[in-house]
Amino acid sequence: VMRGHVEAMMDGVYPLDVEHLAVAYDQILHLTRLIEDMRLLTKAEAGQLPLDKTIIEPQELITRAVQRFQPLAEDAQITFETDIAPNMPSIRIDVNRIQQALDNLIANAIRHTHPDGKISLSGSVDKKGDLILRIHNTGEPIPANVINHVFDRFWRADDARERDAGGTGLGLAITRLLVELHDGSINALPTPDGATFEITLPIATTV
User: Fold this and answer.
1) How far is the C-alpha of 96 from the C-alpha of 121, rounded, in Å?
2) Which residue in 22, 161, 186, 189 has its CB near the most CB atoms, within 10 A?
3) DSSP label at 198?
4) What is the residue-wise DSSP string for 149-172?
5) pLDDT digits (tens, 9 = 90+) for 23-57
6) Whole-number mean pLDDT of the chain?
7) Model pTM?
8) Which run of H or of E encompasses 141?
9) Helices 95-111 and 171-181 meet at what angle, rounded to 10?
10) 100-104 contacts at long range (C-beta below 8 A, 24 or more positions apart)
């Protein structure tokens, strides 16, 4: 797309104006995201992605996530809800990397939630003492033949391809790697009213 628009402007087929330059610029941004995502995946898989772990309260982690996306959700007429268990223990994580994982999941949820829909973020501790973070969005359920592929590289559901929302097809693959680097796990869960992603992280044993 970028090459076609630039060549068309060079040949005089398109005028050299802001409108047509904007199309090429958008494609440059998309290519930049793809390169950065591939670089991150490669470093993570090679064990060369260092983690700068610090102590943080789960409540703060979830609150920050909601604050980052609140304007986008309001523009899309989507409601955020949070359900945070009281007095949860601290976790020791690379805050920026886990924020990146949460950002990927919330951005994905916003893309797949219809106007007047809802995105819920919850935090709790399971019987093993691990932190459980859940991101649920209302909308169409994830089909059974899809749920096993959502973390695959470059895989995008048919409706995502049709909308061409500008993703690289690597967001969920990166999310899984970032969580696994923290000795955690992530799962996509079938729900009748939409989609739920569940992250499990070990609680910090020392502060």
Assistant:
1) 18
2) 186
3) E
4) TTTSTT---HHHHHHT-S--S-HH
5) 888 888 878 878 887 888 888 777 778 889 999 99
6) 86
7) 0.79
8) none
9) 150
10) 100/174, 100/175, 100/178, 101/174, 101/175, 101/178, 101/179, 101/186, 101/199, 102/61, 102/65, 102/133, 102/135, 102/199, 103/65, 103/68, 103/69, 104/171, 104/172, 104/174, 104/175
Total residues found in the chain within this entry = 207
The CA-CA-CA angle for residues 103, 153, 164, to 5°, reads 65
**Helix, strand, or coil here: 136?**
strand
Strand bridging mode 118-125 / 54-56:
unpaired
Let me know if 58 is exposed, middle or buried by CB neighbors in 10 A (0-12, 13-18, 19+): buried
Structure tokens that stand for 52 in this block = 């700068």
Which residue has 């005089």 as its token pair? 12
